[in-house]
Structures are given as C-alpha cells and as structure tokens.
Amino acid sequence: MFDVELYKKMSQFQKLASKNGVNAYSEFIRWSKNGKILDVGCGEGSTTVDLLYPLIMANSSNSELIAMDLEEDMISAANASYGHMNIDFIQMDITNINENNNKYKNYFDNVFSFICLHLVSDLIWIKNIYDLMKRDGQTFFIIPANNPVFTAVMELRHEGNYIEYVKKVEHVFNTPFAQLSNPEDWIKPLMEKEGFKNVKCFKFPQDFTFESFDYLKRFIATFQFLIKEIPTDEQDDFIEQVANRIIRISTFDETTQEIHASCFILAIIADK
Ligand SMILES: C[S@@+](CC[C@H](N)C(=O)[O-])C[C@H]1O[C@@H](n2cnc3c(N)ncnc32)[C@H](O)[C@@H]1O
What we know:
There is one protein chain. The protein has 272 residues and is α/β, with parallel strands linked by helices. The protein has a single domain, classed as Rossmann fold (3-Layer(aba) Sandwich), CATH 3.40.50. It contains 13 helices and 8 strands. It has helices spanning 4-10, 12-25, 46-59, 72-82, 124-132, 148-156, 163-168, 170-173, 176-179, 184-193, 213-221, 224-227, 235-248; strands spanning 36-40, 64-69, 87-91, 108-114, 133-144, 197-210, 251-252, 259-271. The two termini are 30 Å apart. It binds S-adenosylmethionine. S-adenosylmethionine binds at residues 1-2, 11, 14, 18, 41-43, 47, 69-71, 74, 93-95, 114-116, 119-120. Residues 1-2, 11, 14, 18, 41-43, 47, 69-71, 74, 93-95, 114-116, 119-120 line the site of S-adenosylmethionine.
C-alpha cells in the first residue's frame, strides 16, 4: 500500500499528528498490569517503537505488545529494524481477523492505531477490533479527518486526465473520515452500535509545513496504492497535479517556497 523506504523518510506528518494526539489525550488511557496491547496498521514499525513503546514502558509493566499490518513488506521492514525488541510484528488484515487469528479474540486490553483506520474502507474493522478486545479493554485511535491530500485526490476523480485511474481507488479517498466536516458524528454511533461504550471523539487541528514543492511531491509519491494505478510515464505529471491542488487549498509562502497545510485529526477513545 505504501512504498516502505519512501514512507520511512516521508512520514513526518503522520508522526507529528500521532505524537500530538498522544500528548493531548494519553491521560484518558486506562492501563492494566501485564497488559496485552495491539497496534493496528503499524507500518514499518517506527511509530510503534518511538511513540507507543515508551508510553507502554512508562505505564504498563510486563506488557505484551503485538503490532500488525496488512502489508508483508511493512512487517518485514519492521522485523529487520526492530526484530531484536520485545515486540511481535505480525501480518494481519484488520478486515479479516478470523483466519488463523482466533487466538487473539477477546485478548487485548488496549488497541492502538495510528493513521491507519481512515484507509480501511470495509467498516468491518469496527466489529473486528471490538472482538479482539477484552471486556473493559480500551481503544486509542489517531485518525486523519479532513486533509488536503484526500481533498485534492477526490477533485481529480471529477476532472482532468486521470479520472478513470483515480476512480479505482476512490473507495479509499472517499472515506467519511476525510469527506465529512464532522466525522465524529458518523463514527461514534457506528462504534456504539457494535457495542463500544463511552466513545469519546476529540478533534484537533494539525498544521504541517512541506519544506518545498519537491518534498510535497515525494510525500504524495508514498501513496503507492494510488500512484501504481497511473501509467508509469504519466506518474510525475499526476503527482504534480495533486501537489498543485494541495497548494491551492493550502498556503504557499513565495519567499521560503514552503507549503503550509492544515488538517484535522480525530482521537477516538472507547471502552468495550
Ligand atoms: C499511513 S500508514 C501508518 C503506519 C504507522 N501506524 C505510522 O503511524 O507511521 C498506514 C498503514 O496501515 C496499513 N493498513 C491499511 N489497511 C490495513 C488493514 N486492512 N489491516 C491492517 N493494516 C492496514 C498500511 O499497510 C500502512 O502500513
């Protein structure tokens, strides 16, 4: 879904949003002794290791941390970098937890997820996370809401040369998290319907500066599941079009050539 090496280099925005969410709302996290902890959509593992692991170490002694991702490549990269640590990195699809993974039903005290669940268009993830949790377990999700990348890509679904390619992945970009102005009013009842209690959704603004047009283009290029839909010789042009649209809905500083983008992030904390 993402180019692993490029993602590692270009994921500062994701890291900043997750860190700010943790700093703002970690006081609500309920920790258990010997806690069983899951990170859903861990990517190449650096957020798990740099952000989540220290938080766990400070709050839950003797815990077990499992970090999962859909992509084998991400899990291989995580194991290559962090295999020596006390973290199990496993390949697992949060929309399909039944095969081979029954041992994790009703297993986890805490389920974290950073910058992943907006990409999962099959909402079965809500039930699946619920099923993976112990009674009295708790979620802590950080999810991008309205953001310029998703807005720009959705514009290209309607106009320009790339309509037919963008349509193939529009189910990802058309997520209510990004397209609704108040996605908390949509997700809260869905989670409650699945059985979650005390669902708290906090929405906070997150600004991010792309240091140059080139940096912005490399950031867009990390979305491999989108880029690979475009014929190779047209990819640069496509990326440029997305970047130009992002500039139009952001603030461009002529002097420094920086692009100041703003978006909203949701932190969702809920009990089983
Ligand atoms: C933007 S990355 C975030 C990675 C990491 N949490 C971070 O904060 O840097 C999103 C990750 O979600 C994973 N992902 C997408 N759909 C998934 C699914 N159905 N099940 C598990 N992981 C998924 C992707 O493979 C990708 O590694």
